[in-house]
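Quick note —
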Amino acid sequence: MMLRNSNQIVLQSLFVLFLTFCFGVSRAQGVDFLDDDIYDPPPVNDPLEPVNRVLFDINDKMYVWVLEPVSTGYSKVLPSDIRRCISHFFYNLGEPVRAVNCLLQGRVQDAGRTLGRFVINSISGVFGLADPAAHEFKIPPVYASLSETFSVWGVGDGLYLVIPLFGPTTLRDLTGTIGDGFAMTAYSPWNDDLLTTSTAYGTRTVNYTSLHLGEYADIKSLSFDPYIAFRNGYFQLRAKQFDHVHQ
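Predicted structure written out below.
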């Protein structure tokens, strides 16, 4: 029984990775860069660039041919207010994991704020569908991940990777994502079977993409080399996230 449960958790965590490739894309989307020359990134360890470029093209086609059309149809069915509520719900579920990462990084106050947000939004925000912690109690979201924890502990990025159906990452970030995914499966409300898990995370992926339609195409159209642009954007946004929490 324990072996079967362990295998189920592994399958669920891997499925989370496959269904969240748009978040890899979206990490670059959140950055305001219009040309490859605007941002001067640090040296990137990308010895697998030829392979990564092939995988980037595969992900690009999956996004354009599958995820974007599905998300567009989804956006026409559900109003943006409801989709934002769904986004808040999924974000709220990750707060306990962020709190643990804050503690592992020695950020005790941030851990308290994150747990406070989780309690307030789970109760007053109806299971996290709203964010009264930020709007009424003036407690902004706190960024923390296992990848950042590894960084604080002195672990380097390792290789830059493009993962099929996941997007840009590094060896350290991928390991952190898997670790955070395992942690969330311990208390997520949809761990009964793989179908329920895949439906939940598929909804999360489509919902997130529906709130950012057009951004991916805009970045591609403004870049001479989309592969380099998204690689630079990935590291740029991550640097901003890490700088923010250490200010």
